[in-house]
Amino acid sequence: MVVMDLFRRRLRDRRASTDRRLWSASCLAFGVGWAATRQPYSPAVLIAALVLAIAPLRRWRRHDDIDARIAHLVGRRRLPRFEVHTKDFPAYRFVDMYHATDAYCRQRGTFSLIESEHPNESLNTILHAKPDAYVSRRIRGAARAAWAIGPRQEEYLPGDCFWVSADQRSNWLILRVRHQPLRDRVAIEVAAETRHAAEACVDAIVEISGRNSIYRNKIISIRFEAGIKDEYGDVEGSDRLSVTFKVDELVSDDDIVIDDDVRAVLRRNVVDLHQRRAVLKRHGVPVRRGVLLYGPPGTGKTFACRYLCGQLPETTRIIVAGTALLHVGSVFNLARLLQPSVVILEDVDLVFAAREINLYSSVLGELLDQMDGLRPYEDIGVILTTNAIERLEAAIKDRPGRISQCIYFGAPNDRLRRRYLERYLRGYAQFDVDFDALVKPSHGATQAFLKEWVHRAVQIAVERLEGGDAPLRLRNEDFDSAFVEMRRFSGGSTGRIIGFHE
Fold this sequence. Notes:
It is a single chain. The protein is α/β, with parallel strands linked by helices. It has four domains: 14-64; 76-211; 260-408, 3-Layer(aba) Sandwich (Rossmann fold); 414-498, Helicase, Ruva Protein, domain 3 (Orthogonal Bundle), CATH 1.10.8.60. It is 41% helix and 20% strand. It has 16 helices and 18 strands. The strands form five sheets. A seven-stranded mixed beta sheet has the order 11-8-13-14-15-12-16, with helices on both faces. A hairpin with a 5-residue loop joins β9 (228-229) and β10 (235-237). It is elongated. The two termini are 66 Å apart. Residues 1-20 and 57-62 have low confidence and may be disordered.
């Protein structure tokens, strides 16, 4: 397949070259014939015909090949020896790098943009080397792909672009941004007359990309996607860390039912810490702080994290779970780029367990290094959640300095259970329920159990309806039937599966 593709490409290039020769020959024949009919015969007319015949070849050469087009824009027949500086980044930085490069060129002054795909050649090769026999430098439009730029927002961008830019002093820069799908990387290549100018240009683009990043002040989720191999073991897709936008499912103070003491501690150690960071820095208070949320499953730790995300609209909120926890180095690098930021590491006991039972000791060491490496002036907060604090590595939970605040989430008391039920029943217009009769037998129920309890009671109440349009009315009997059904076969320790703790 590769050989046939190269053959077809070579044949296409030869046909295009033949078309140009035929065009030039036709122009020359027309000029000679026209000159022969002129009386008296003039050599100047023949010279004009020759110029007319040769011009298409030069013009086609100028507009067809990427190196010739760049040389034409620079204003030289041959390109000088440019210094090329290259730097690559993860693929999720492509949109940032594309827009930052375009913004940098607009700041400099005059520039030209060329969209053309050349996957087999670097910018240094294009500028300074002859093309390989089977590599075409013909300018052809780069394929455009959809890139997420926000929740439910996309932008189509070309995967390979060149900018030819000049400032007021005619200092030329040639810039290129290209996506490399097989490596899952984005490369920035800058050519300048001096190495210092090329490096300074790359540094400026990186700074602009971080300051105006599409991820800044958003809620983003980090995921790890394993590589893909074919049946012969060849890599078709490399391992990659992807960044996706999460829809802002804001949880207000009225929506969250939580103990008042827990709410106050969360606000002081996370929300107020970031909202008052400028004042706290002036008074010598470091704004980096680690908070550990622990307790049985279904007790509201994840919901509390959603609540905190909604309270920090001017902070980048990074949610990390699952196998993405194995790449904490990349996560903290992103957090430093987008600070002020908060990193939420969910279910850390799955990866950062005690050393005696830990299969990921190197990753555990990376997390400890990252938490210890946070400087007092860095606006990065860390929130960890776990269902089994006893399994967590002692170097995290027992050493002061890494975790500044521990908050326990347990089964709610009677007062909170009543508030939970009132909150879940708010969406139903008619109900005839004695809350005191529901609260007493539900001692030990978690938030997850209470939510499912309401849904099961509604399902039972729907079975009484004769028509689809009849009004729904909830009764205590519906909750009693649902409670008995949910607890059946789930007594004792098995009740934890459904969120009920004896």
